[in-house]
Amino acid sequence: METKNLNVAIVEDNDPKMESFYNGLKSLSDKYNSLITFNGLAQVLSYSGCLNKYIILVHIKSFGSEWINGISQFKNNWPNCCILVLSEHYEGDYVLKIITAGAAGYIGSDISTEKIEEAILEIAEGGAPVTPMVARKLVEYFQLCRAKTNELTKRELEVTKCLVNGMSYKLIAAELNVSIDTIRKHITSVYNKLDINSKGELFAIYRDVINY
Known about the structure:
Elements: E1 7-12, H1 19-26, E2 34-39, H2 41-45, E3 54-60, H3 65-77, E4 82-87, H4 92-101, E5 105-108, H5 113-124, H6 132-149, H7 154-164, H8 169-176, H9 180-194, H10 199-208
Parallel strand pairs: 1-2, 1-3, 3-4, 4-5
Helix pairs in contact: 4-6, 7-9, 8-9
């Protein structure tokens, strides 16, 4: 695929360390069909135009739920956009939350403009680029999750399977012949044991770690 057919959006964050990177990409604007820049998360979320079919480059320089929620909102607003995250944070649980929120790729923020272009093309062709460090941290995280899943009781695993299969608390209670309050307690216990806070994280762990 030629870059001339691609639409790219860059979300800047006024980080001096990223200035040369942004300038490098902007200098390539004639290589893309469209290149838009935004100054921060709020400006993107207030954008009245359409970013469907855009590859959105996002630099995350600090932890927190702001970007997790923001990326989720991007996908809600523009379901056909692809999000490429650049960050120096490689912690497996945070990477998982970002990917679960809707990011298509997660790479280091210290790589060259050439490598960024390669990642853009990979996403455009249906890939999901991650740098080796990110991949290693994800593997370590899932190994830890696998160890944690061994702490789940047989009933907690049954409840998890039902929940991931889309069943409501009421249906799970009927299926297992227990009260809804009991189901809530089981789910709370599962979340605590796996150290997670959302169904999205549970689905990711179930898909990639828990084996039935």
